[in-house]
Amino acid sequence: MKTFLFSWIVIVQLGQSARGSSLEEVFAQKRCYSETEKTPSFGFRGYRRWVLEVNAWTSQRLVSTIAGILLRECVGYSVSLNAVESALRTPQRVAKKFVAGDGDAVAARLKANEDFGYANLEVWTLGQSREQQNLLSQGRFREAGPIGYTGQSGWWVSQSWAEHAHWRVTPEFYRAYDSRRNSSQEVLRALREQSAVDCQLATVCCCGSAQSCGKNGKDGELSWCPHRVNSSLPAVLAQDPMIDAGFNEELAQSQRLGFNFALRFLGQNAFSQEASAALASGAAQVVHAWRPSVFLSRLRVQDVPILRLMLPSFETCGSHNNDASGDWACDFPVQDLRKLVSLEVELDSVAMHFFSQFNLSDRRKGGLDGMELQGAGIQDLTDWLAMRSNTTASAEDIFQAACSWVRENEADWKSWVLSRNVPMFADTLHFLYPIPTLMVVLLLAIAYLVFLENPWLWTTLSIPVARKILQKNQKRWRSELDERMRERKAASASLATPLSSTASERTPVPGVSAPSVRSGFDSLTTVSQQPLPIGVSTDPEPPLPTLGADYWKGVSDRSKESDRAQEFWREADEWVHAAEKWSSVPEEAASSADRVRFAQRTFPCFQHSREVVLQLLRSDAGTSSGKRLVVEVEVGECDGGAKAKRDFTAGTHRVELAPGQAFAELRVPVEDHKDAWQNSYWFQAQLTQVLDGEGMLAVPVKTTVLVLDENTWPCNIPDSQRQGYGISLLRYFIRADRLRQGEKWNKTMIAMIWLPVHSVVVSTLVQKILVDHVVHKLQTADSWTRTAWPYWECLILVMVQLVSLGLNRWADVVQTRNRSRTGGIRQVHRSHMMRKFMHLERAEFWEASESHWLYSMMYDVDVATGSAYFQVFVMAQSIFALVLSILLVCGLAAWSHVVRSEKSSVPSPVSIQTTWYIVGVFIMIFAGILGVWIRMKMIWVAVLARKNKESAWFRSITWVFTSWRQFHGLLSQERVALEKQVLKQNGDFVPAHRDARDTMNDTQWVTHWIQGIAYCLMLLFGTFALAEHEAYGIGVMEVGTFYALCKVYLTVGKYIGRLSHSFVDMQRAIVSLRDIAALLNQKCQNSQRREATRLASCGGMQRRYSVQEQGIRFENGVSFIRPKHNKQGVTFSDLVLRRGCMLPLGRQVHVVARNERVLRSFLGLAAEVIHPTEVLPDMTSGRIIMPAGLSLMMLPTVPIAIGIDGGVTILQQLEFTGASKELILALVEAVGLEPHREASSLGPGMGQIFSIIRALLVDPDVLCAFRPLALVPLDMQRQVAQLLCFWQGGGGLPRIAKCLGVSMPKEEAAVYRPVARTLILGNSKRDLPVISALEVHLDLDELLWTGPARETEEGPVGTTCGTPLENQNHLHLNSGATGDAARPEGCISWLARNPFVHTL
After folding, report:
1. What does the buried/exposed string (b/e) look like for 445-476 if buried means 16 or more CB atoms within 10 Å of the residue's CB?
2. Of 1085, 921, 1141, 1111, residue with least CA distance to 1011
3. Which residues of 669-690 are buried (b: 16+ CB within 10 A; e: fewer)?
4. C-alpha angle with apex 862: 861 to 863, nearest 5 degrees?
5. Is the dihedral of CA 775, 776, 782, 788 positive or negative?
6. What is the rounded distance in angstroms from the CA atom of residue 749 to the CA atom of residue 473?
7. Distance spanning both ends of the chain, measured CA to CA
8. Given this model, what pLDDT does residue 1052 score?
9. How many CB atoms lie within 10 A of CB 920?
10. Most buried one in 158, 329, 597, 1330, CB count within 10 A?
11. CB neighbours (10 Å) of residue 516?
12. Phi (first) and psi of residue 590, to 5 degrees
């Protein structure tokens, strides 16, 4: 009855189970935890997927369901179960080698083209084929370790049947089934009666292994016999041939055991029904089962007594093969059940942790206590299922069992699931990540950036500043040259019209341009004289642009267009005709006025004298008047560079001349800038008014105070400091620029020093703390006690990095704006050199060529500022960075020592390896600097050779580009020769450049080699130390420390490289500094220096200028000698006067000479353009003595005009003369020039007129001119000659202004000045109208030295040449004596009649 009821219940439950849902459907539909009850640790949001294989046996289904619940609801994966009919291809599926029929879940995933991982959490490994073993050895999937319990199969019989009286259980129970024993025949007969297989039937499988046979019976039943025989064999009931594949077959036919059984493999339901009924009823049936299984658990729960057929354990059990070809004769082996996982697990540390930690025990100690599953093992779970349902466990039961176990065993599985106490901003699995965090950080960064770039720093990254720059430059992004070339290209394309073009498309005639307005021309077109090209139409349509009537006018025609100009020339012509009839020069009426003026137009002084003495002279009439005279003198700035309060004391002074006092002095303090070099600078003093007395002001009422500096450049370096290696020169140069920059230099230095703080310290420490502290804390903290603070630490460290970046930006802006490397220091030194060059006296230009000045100003100054001045900041930055690196290495060593001490209670000394890391940094620094120092002189030699060769090339190429106007006169052969010369110099330069380049680059590589070797050694030994620490816990070399050391060593190498680069650049700069110092320390303005020395030694009262001198007196022996290295001059040549002469004032002095260069030298001496130099050994020194206060000027031999960019017009340049704009326009109009035309665009003839007009507007007392009308256009020569005569004898510029109807300024009209001017002309005998009363003639050849002849470029110099002039008023010559006694009577009588005699 009991057996019947049990069988009925099994049948009913099996029917219900058949009608239920599958496990994968139940798993997909149900959840163990509600969404509010349990939140997954990782919100993978479905993009990480796992498929868990589900086999037919319950234990595997249980562990798969438990793992699926944990992965889905506690971890956060997308999980699905994949039910398969057989476990035969499990390794292939785990290796992702899917075929049709490998499960619906896999098919769905593959159809959706999704990436997923695959796992089977209970695999009986002994059933694997050779192919499956190869997959494992090839690494096509991973074993995640044992599941935690073992599996073992066996043969089971009913205990009641086994204990039957006919076959009592013996110690060798298995012998009861030995077919070779007669005693076993009755047992075997009973087994055949219960369940037998007819081995002769065709449907019976007689192959080696049952798993290789197809299903051949109802509900998938498979019958197997060892051999096809004509008999029936007792059958062993079994379920899945995959489990223990081959073992059942080998045991069933084991000759060693004497077994001869058949096997019946039934489906799950049929096996459960038939096997349970047989065992429960005590029937003669051998059943194959395994544990863990619900089948055995149910029998145990139902108290069905069964016994396991214990097979022997021989020392040699035989061999086993999956195809049943072995001779296994022992009991079923215990299998270590494994977890197989696909390779996706290697990319997922969370899954790797879970699968490696996931395990279940075999059975809880003490067994199952009721329905509680806390601490339950797999057999407890199967018992629970057996207790819950008396039949085969349904999918709902399995899910409920798995869920109950998960809920009751959280303490066990919580270590399998990594917890994540991560704040929202760091949660990479949050569905909004990283948008909120990214937006917040970006907004903070942008706000920080905007605040830095706009209201604080106001850089060009700010919109207002950028807009201002664009507006200031009119948003022009193409150069004018580029635009002009594009326009010309477009015009050329429009002119390229085919011959068959219509009249409206004809190409304009080449050479005829549209009217354009330029420099005062209303309509100017240029017609080419070239013949019309073939294809250009000669039809009258379209008409040529008309040319204005004024276009064909000459300068002479324009000069008489206005009524005012015509009236002016009429008056000038009348005066000249009247003057030609003079028998003598009209005398200027003597005046008894009391006049006062400055003694000189220029007062030179030395800066170290700390004051300048200004001398005022009073006329003889005023001195003898017996009256007191008080005048006002205003001292102030002008355009000479001197600044009030900084260089001198400005102000208004009251100067009193007592009765009978002819001289007065005004002392103006001058600031002495000690230990500073300056170019000469000047300021101005002016007589403004007479405060008391009846006197008046006389010219000169303005004087220039020239302050000369005798300090050496740079920063007054002593000569003793310039004889070494150039270090002192470099030091003084840097000191001078530091003093010049002042606070800016300090700001730049602080900013440059701060820059490496960010890269060396902040970035390294932030990285170190993030790796070794924050991340390590997250790794070592318990998964369930981990807090969110490390994430906040990470955020704080990132903010520190961002703030440091902002400070780095601030430092970069500060150093960029205050360093003044290009716009400041470099241009300051260039302006110094330009100012020095522009104010050299003529002879001083010959000390160094203009190419040396230009090359030094462009190249040497650039090298000095970039390679010396700025390298100081780079050097300081590098040294500071190296110090920071050393401190950082020491800090890391101390950190490691502290960590090591914390791990051990015994204090440990700093390791030797850590000490070597510190010592290695010092060795790198010392060796790098030493290597550069050793090659110092080699750098000098190579750089100097390159500089000399490049300077020669630069001189030639400068001439080529600045002399293009002369190219039309060069023959093609001459152009080729010029090009060859330049190319030859370039060929000489290139090898020298390569030598210098290689020398400097190789020197820098000394430090690169040292740093590279040190870094390799650090990598080698640091890696060893890191491996020892990570693998065995030896030492303290953490990952972050290793990274930090790598960065520190790279940083040290970087800044040692910069330091060596700075040293190399400084050695290069020393070569340039020597040339700059040589040029800037050249003695300049020597004549003024001699005058300043004389005035300082004489106390200021004794003067070189004599009031009694009424002309320019050349003493015997006056000489001008060019230096030996520059004898071939264009303008001036050597000159030595054997006898002196006197050039009277107020006359036209016509000087003639056969050697024009000698003549120009004489005129230059008279105008003080050049100054007397050394004399020949057998000659006594000669001087040139001039009356006090004369203004001198020499007309340029070749017309000059300011030709700088921007187009200086005639009017703009003439305004520099100080004349009024009205007067300039009137005079320019009178000579036919156009005031708004660019002065540099004038041709030779009009340029000469411009030069003469400029000289007349200056209105000097003495004007020297060499052939002034040689280049003047023919139609203007007569007018310009009359203009010169009119200016000289008619009253100078005031008379010209009066004739033009222009009033002179009141302040000038109130100042007394003599009427007559002095005009000294060279080789201009017949250019001017003959006014005998004003003319004086001099044959210079009669004055030249008569010593041994010296051949020069144009003939012998030194011999007396020439004959007496036939014209009247020949100038008498001095015989060698000085003073009035040496003058001929005629000369003295003439001086008495000279109107300039009575000036004072």
Report:
1. eeebbeebbeeebebeebeeeeeeeeeeeeee
2. 921
3. ebebbeebbbbbbbbbbbbeeb
4. 90
5. negative
6. 32
7. 165
8. 76
9. 19
10. 597
11. 11
12. -65, 145
Handedness of CA 628, 629, 630, 636 (dihedral sign): negative
Q: Residue 4 and residue 24: Cα distance in Å, rounded? A: 34
Low-confidence residues in the chain, pLDDT < 50: 1-19, 171, 497-544, 906-910, 1100-1108, 1349-1400
Helices 912-934 & 870-903, crossing angle to 10 degrees? 170
Tell which phi-psi region holds residue 1397, choosing left (phi > 0), alpha (psi between -120 and 50) or beta.
alpha
Quote the distance between the C-alpha of residue 676 and its chain's center.
Answer: 35
CA–CA dist 79, 68 (Å, integer): 6
- pLDDT value at residue 82: 93
- 1291 torsion bin: left (phi>0), alpha (psi -120 to 50), beta (else): left
Element (H, E) at 1181: none
Distance, in Å, from the CA atom of 1275 to the CA atom of 557, rounded to the nearest integer, reads: 9
Give the chain's count of helices (H) and strands (E). Answer: 43, 34
Asked if residue 1102 lies in contact with residue 1321, where contact means CB atoms within 8 angstroms, the answer is: no
d(CA 323, CA 131): 13
Which residues does 839 contact at the CB level (< 8 Å), separation at least 6?
A: 679, 680, 1084, 1085
Q: Which amino acid is present at 160?
A: S
What whole-number distance in Å separates Cα of residue 401 and Cα of residue 60?
Answer: 13
Whole-angstrom Cα distance, residue 263 to residue 224? 5
C-alpha 1399/C-alpha 929 separation (Å) is: 73
User: What is d(CA 426, CA 433) in angstroms, rounded to the nearest whole number?
Assistant: 8
- Report the pLDDT value the prediction gives residue 1373, as an integer from 0 to 100: 43
Task: For residue 32, give both structure tokens.
Answer: 């163990």
What stretches of 698-843 adopt beta strand conformation (E)?
702-708
What is the per-residue pLDDT for 1193? 93
Letter for the amino acid at 991?
Answer: P
CA-wise closest residue to 508 among 467, 544, 557, 483:
544
What tokens were used for 607?
């800066």
Q: Is 1085 left (phi over 0), alpha (psi -120 to 50) or beta?
A: left
Q: How far is CA 201 from CA 220, 223, 224, 782, in A?
A: 17, 10, 11, 65
Q: Residues 486, 489, 495, 499: is their CA dihedral positive or negative?
A: negative
Rounded to an integer, what distance in angstroms lies between the CA atom of residue 412 and that of residue 784? 12
When computed from its CA atoms, the radius of gyration of the chain, rounded to whole angstroms, is 57
Tell me which residue of 336, 1177, 1067, 218 sits closest to 727, measured CA to CA: 1067
**Burial of 648 per CB tally in 10 Å (0-12, 13-18, 19+):** buried
Element (H, E) at 1161: helix 1156-1166
What is the CA angle 1002-1003-1007, rounded to 5? 105
Nearest to 572 by CA among 1346, 1153, 1331: 1331
The residues with which 336 forms a beta bridge, in sequence order, are: 150
> With contact defined as beta carbons under 8 Å apart, do 1350 and 1136 qualify?
no
**Residue 1380 pLDDT:** 36
Identify the pLDDT of residue 188.
84
Q: How far apart are CA 51 and CA 96, in angstroms?
A: 11
pLDDT at 902: 63
Contact 1271, 1242 (CB under 8 A): no
Strands 516-518 and 651-657: unpaired
H-run or E-run covering 1344 = none
Task: In whole angstroms, give the CA distance from residue 1281 to residue 1265.
Answer: 12
Beta pairing partners, 155: 288, 309
Asked if residue 1142 lies in contact with residue 1390, where contact means CB atoms within 8 angstroms, the answer is: no
- Amino acid 1102: pLDDT: 44
Distance of CA 1325 to the CA centre of its chain: 68
C-alpha–C-alpha distance, residues 756 and 874, integer Å: 11
